[in-house]
Structures are given as C-alpha cells and as structure tokens.
Amino acid sequence: MIVYCAGAIRGDSSFGESYQDIIEIVKKNGHSALSELNPEFKAAFPLNEKQVFQRDIKWIEKSSLMIAEISGPSLGVGFEISYALYVREIPVLALYDADVEKISAMITGCDSELLYIKSYNNKTELGELIKNFLKQQA
Q1: How many CA atoms within 13 Å lie on the side-chain side of 113?
Q2: DSSP E strands, the chain
Q3: Under 8 Å between Cβ of 1 and 32
Q4: Confidence (pTM)
Q5: Phi, psi of 66, deg, nearest 5
Q6: What Cα–Cα distance (Å) separates residue 48 from each residue in 14, 39, 52, 76, 101?
Q7: In this predicted model, what pLDDT tens digit does every residue of 89-115 receive, in sequence order?
Q8: Nearest-angstrom CA–CA distance, 127 and 48
Q9: Which residue segments constitute the domains of the chain, with CATH numbers given?
C-alpha cells in the first residue's frame, strides 16, 4: 500500500522524531511511505512553496491512506488531513503523544468515519497502533 505520512515541518516540529518513527514503521510493515522526510523521496534540489504543495497533493492523490503526527500544531498537516478526508475520501490515522494536553478541536471535533484519532505513550505503542491500522485497512 502507498501511505502518505504527514507531520509538522514548519509548524511545531517538536515531535519530529515521532514523525520519523511513523515513516520507518510504515516501511518496516512493507508499505511505501510518501513523505519529504523519507530519504527515498528526497528532492534533488530545494523546492519552492508551490512545488511543495503540488508534490504533496500528488502524493496524497496516489495514497490509499494517511497517517499523521498531530502532537504539534501545523496548518499544513491540518490542510492535508482535510484534503485526504473530504477530497480523496481515504482513511486517516491521526496520532498524538499522550502527554500533549491540547489537540486541535478541528481534528478532535471532526466526525468523519474515515478519521481515527489515537494517542501513544512510546515508540512501541506507536508501532502497534500503526501496524493495527495498516492491517485493518488492507
């Protein structure tokens, strides 16, 4: 399966390690992880804003589902989740660190049946949540 992996790059990137873990876990489970942090898809040259937007939309269009790290606020990740849910109509697993007290109400208040919001306490739990989601969506 092709999985679009989203996480804060310019927003609050405090959870960048967890975002990187998501990419690695998706790959270890035998799936393709589309993300600018995946070395397999690193751009050969710096992209401008329009190119980043076009690339990410193209990647979401190719994906069967999305997994997003939502612990830190990011306008881009929110936009991508919305696009995946309401334009592409693909399942989205939104993951956040259990120590984070406030997650966006636009995410937690969303009633889409395609959105799954889960908290994790550590990398092991993160891996289990992703593995189970991938199995359910296969």
Answers
A1: 0
A2: 2-6, 32-34, 65-69, 92-97, 115-120
A3: yes
A4: 0.93
A5: -130, 145
A6: 23, 19, 6, 15, 34
A7: 999 999 999 999 999 999 999 999 999
A8: 33
A9: 2-137 (3.40.50.450)
